[in-house]
Amino acid sequence: MYTQFFGNFLLSKSAVPADKLVDALERQSSSYLKLGTLAIHAGLLNASQVDAIICRQTHEDKKFGEIAIEGGYLTKEQVDKLLSSQKPDYLLLGQILIEDGLLTNSQFEELLAEYQASNEIDDLNVANEQNDMVEKLIHKFFHFDNSDMSGKIVAYLNLLFNDIVRFIGKDFTPLNPLMKSEYMTNYCVTQKDEGLLSFNSGIDMSKSVAIAFASRYAKEEFHEFDEYVKASIEDFLNLHNGLFNVNMSNTYSTELQLLPPEVHTDCLLTFEDEHFILPVIYPFGTLNFIIYISKSK
Fold this sequence. Notes:
The chain is of the alpha+beta class. The protein is built from 13 helices and eight strands. It has helices at residues 2-12, 18-26, 35-42, 47-57, 64-70, 76-84, 90-99, 105-118, 123-127, 131-142, 148-167, 207-218, 227-252; strands at residues 173-174, 178-184, 187-195, 197-205, 256-258, 262-265, 268-282, 285-295. Strand 3 (187-195) and strand 4 (197-205) form a beta hairpin. Helix 4 (47-57) packs antiparallel against helix 8 and helix 10 crosses helix 11.
C-alpha cells in the first residue's frame, strides 16, 4: 500500500499537478525501473552522482551500470544486486515524473527520503505490509480523528484497498476524500446496511471505466457496457460489503444486514448527512467510492 499512497503524498506536497500524476500512473505498466533510480533508493548514489553518470552517457555509448563501475561509483556486485533486488513500485512513478521534467533527481531524492522517514517505511515492511501500518497511512493521509466512527471508516477503507488490490489490481492511487451532501452520478451502484450502524456505500464510474473495471474483476475481456459489466460491479460491491460485515461482527460484535444493491445512472444523489466521496485513480480511469458510517438514529 506504500506505493499507492506515494502518489497521494506527492499531491499533498504540491510536488506535481493532479493531471500530470494521472498521466504518469497511466504509463507505469509500460515503463521499467532504471539503475539510477534504484541506486538512489538504496542509498548507494545521490542525485548529483546519478546526474553526472547520465551526463557522461550523452557523450559515451555505454550503459549506466558500465559508467558507474568505471567511474568508481558502484561495484559490479552492487550493480548486480540492484538489478535483482525487490523494487517498490513507487520508484517507477517517481522515475516517470523525472522523465517528464516534473521532478529533478534531487527533488525526487528529497521527497522519497521524507516519505519513507515520515511513514517509517523500510524494505522489510514494504515487502510485508501489516494492517496496522496501512491503517496508520490512512489516518495520516485522510486526516481522520480517533473517534469510534472514524475507526470503523478506517477499517472499511483498509479492507477496500486490500480488496481492490486483490480483485482489480495494485496500480492505483487514492486521492483525499471529499465531504458531499449531494453527488452527480455516472453509473453508480449503492448499497445500504441495516443494524446498529447506519451504513451506506457505493461505487461510481463512467461506462468506459466500468468496462475496464469489470474486465479486471471478472478476468474476462469485455468490450461493451452490457449486463455482464453491470453484474460485475454489483458483485464486487456486494462481496466487499459482505466481508466488511463479517469484520464488524468479529471485531465489534456488530451485526449488519445488507440490502440489495441499487443502480443510479446520470442522476443527482442527495444525502441527509454528508458522505465521503473517495476518488481512486487507475490507469484506465477514476473510480469514486461513496462511504457513510454512523450510529443508527
